[in-house]
Amino acid sequence: MLYSELAETFDRLESTGSRLEMTSILADFFRRTDRKDLRTVIYLSQGKLHPDFYPQVLGMADKLVLKAISSTSGASEQKTEALWVETGDPGTVAERLISRKKQTTLFSEELTVDRVFKRLTLIENSGGKDSQDKKIDHLSNLLHDSGPLEARYLCRTVTGRMRVGAGDMTILDALAEAFATKEDRPSIERAFNITCDIGLVGEIIANGGMDAIRSVKVTVGNPVKVMLAERLPSIPEIIERMGGRCAMEYKYDGIRVQAHIGKDSVRLFSRRLEDLTSNFPDIAQSLRTHCKSSEAIIEGECVAVHPETGFMLPFQNVTHRRKKHGMDDAVRDIPVRIFMFDILYEGGNDLTSVPYGQRRKILEDKFAIGGMIQISSAKTIESAEEGEKFFASALADRCEGIMAKSLSEESVYRAGSRGFLWIKYKKDYQESLTDSFDLAVVGAFYGMGKRAGKYGALLMAAYNPEYGRFETVCKLGTGFDDAFLDGMPELLDGGKRETKPASVDAEMIPDVWFEPSVVLEVTAAEITLSPVHTAARNIIAEGSGLGIRFPRFTGRVRDDKLPEQATSVDEITEMFRLQPGSSPDQE
Ligand code: ATP
Known about the structure:
The chain is of the alpha+beta class. It contains 21 helices and 21 strands. The strands form 4 sheets. Strands 12, 13, 14, 15, 16, 17, 18 and 21 form an 8-stranded mixed β-sheet that branches. Strands 3, 4, 5, 6, 7 and 8 form a 6-stranded mixed β-sheet that branches. It has a 5-stranded mixed β-sheet with strand order 1-11-10-2-9. The longest helix is centred in the middle third of the chain and has 17 residues, at about 200-215. Adenosine-5'-triphosphate binds near residues 228, 250, 251, 252 and 376.
């Protein structure tokens, strides 16, 4: 397949704002794609070369891309750079300059999807002394045979800024439309949730249809999207919702880890699918020796403990293990324990459809507990009183609260979904009206007075998975210490945009826009109806969205969360409804 066909499809996708239309453009294209190219085409339509859990990322610096454009088009470096300053987008620069290039030469070779994929892989893997020159050469090789449109998307892909906006949900919709029916959509999504590999799902459905999709199983090495909890404001409400009886576990405050224990090796994934194995080599090794089965996938929370007393330490301590340098020292100085709380796979069996009670038994049976390998404290609870007692003991043991888990036969592991099979209850719920929020930074306002010359406040958004967009909820200017204020440009500027990113829905206009990427934890006094914020607009009251009042940064950057894992608009709506006295006519 020619890359020009893919570039034309990207162009059509980019020019429509309608998700339905995007879906049908993609479905039509997937049907026409050679089966052998489909997997690659799906990755490329997200600006990637492989699933998200691969550690490599394409991220060629703009300056190098400009050099490749200049050498292929013959335009001077000054002219290329001036155009880049004007447009801010290497893709547009390439499109404008390459259009002046004579396309047919004796030495041109067809630009196929396969060729593009191979060269981009070489760019991604270029390392060492001459890596910059090698990257420029590989990109020039492709640009040499590109038309303007192909050049636009090649340059956007190599810089890691595709901007087409084909999110996972749109691609899954398109796969259902192209190869199955609407009714099959949940099964296709499940296959994705348990493999985290959308290209693989596309390949399976195109070649084997729905039978093949339904037989996709959890496998060691492919992370599974994590199951998440709902929240309720009190223990009695939790017990009632659970039908009078449930399990309760301590809610540990650390880093969630999904461990894939293979015969000879172990890989640890974060909930945003990063490989954390090198951060917790001691945990990885111990899991292998403590696991009685040849293969297993478990989940647990990694918590730092005091080297002498063994007491659990606050979350910040374990984050030192995420810093790249000096890991040997960190392993020695910051002892960590993993508190396992679930098992998704064991000895050839996919356990995600097995009820929680049975999974817990298997977890207890298949591991030798001791040293850094621990299992979450758990108890069957049959009254609110028992629940309150368990909650108090969790706090006394320095946990942040409890997780209530359904003991019903339906309590399967729901990969990638948030539901009432798990309900969390935290210490904070007693102190304020709402839980904390994890919000994506979508913009910044320049500061004044003491903050002049820096970013003074941030525009924060919740995620709406239904539309794949970020809807604003507050302007955040409190809770920043000097170090955070100084570090903001480094944290945020990689995602700086001249105009509002396509995935952001905002009415408030900041001085600088950001592609959503950084997630911050924020507390607030209450959720109110808002005329300016766009979250849940028209859901509670016509013409109003939901905003959060007196937002305050807690100091915690949620670098374990992708922006799409930020607090969702539905959660905020639900929290608004749970607030005492919330009604559409307030404020
Ligand atoms: P939070 O910010 O409250 O940790 P979250 O959005 O990360 O919330 P939730 O599903 O809302 O995720 O809360 C569950 C989280 O609590 C899990 O992601 C996990 O990291 C942590 N956790 C700690 N102990 C347990 C446990 N025993 N069972 C399940 N999750 C636990």
